[in-house]
Specification:
Helix content is 24%, strand content 33%. It has 165 residues and is an alpha+beta fold. The chain starts with a strand and ends with a strand. Bound molecules: coenzyme A. The site of coenzyme A has 21 residues, from strand 5, helix 3 and helix 4.
């Protein structure tokens, strides 16, 4: 259900092929071509693309990656990215909640993510939503969403239970 905020309507849902033009229109030099790749991966399964909408327009996307190669975190929220013009209007929260609902519906009891300890926007968002650091770290893998070309830092692994409310 759309959630009414003070001035905007914010919602999040699974992406479809019809969303591709809007996603491509907001690609950057760092993300060029990735929207089509992600939607193709969604077709292959265990990989879900969620889009966030603000007043009916796509303002960001995020991924729930359930592919299990024995080494990665499963399920993992990945590549959360709100287009710069749409930030601070609740889309990050809405897309995170949609990914959590999806993971819960798929039967998972917890969800993971990796985030740079130096990300000044994402850390408060995740902490506010109940994520906590596991104490583990790994080399950054989601570099396309970073706003800088600087050497990607290590990521801290965060976890949230999907059963304890
Ligand atoms: C991080 C990101 C997804 C947040 O998206 P958003 O839609 O702007 O976030 P929301 O509007 O849902 O913000 C919810 C809360 O998160 C926190 N937050 C969001 N942006 C913040 C910022 N720039 N500084 C401090 N806190 C911030 C606040 O607590 C905020 O609540 P408030 O606005 O009531 O204070 C967005 O800034 C982004 O796409 N950044 C670049 C990509 C990135 O870093 N992705 C995460 C990779 S792990």
């Amino acid at each position: 259900m759309p959630e009414a905020t003070k001035t905007h309507t914010v919602e999040a849902r699974l992406a479809t092929a019809d969303d591709l033009p809007a996603l491509i229109a907001n690609e950057t030099s760092r993300t060029k071509g990735l929207s089509a790749e992600y939607l193709a991966e969604q077709e292959r399964g265990d990989f879900y693309v969620v889009v966030g909408l603000i007043d009916g327009e796509i303002g960001g996307r995020a991924i729930l990656d359930c592919r299990d190669d024995g080494e990665t975190l499963v399920p993992e929220m990945r590549l959360l990215w709100v287009f710069p013009h749409a930030r601070r209007k609740g889309l990050g929260v809405a897309m995170t909640a949609a990914l959590e609902d999806l993971a819960r519906d798929l039967g998972y009891r917890e969800i993971f993510l990796g985030v740079s300890p130096e990300n000044p926007a994402a850390i408060p968002l995740y902490v506010e939503l109940g994520y906590a650091p596991t104490g583990e770290h790994r080399a950054a893998v989601n570099v396309s969403v970073l706003d800088t070309d600087a050497e990607p830092p290590m990521e801290a692994v965060f976890q949230k239970s999907l059963v304890v409310r």
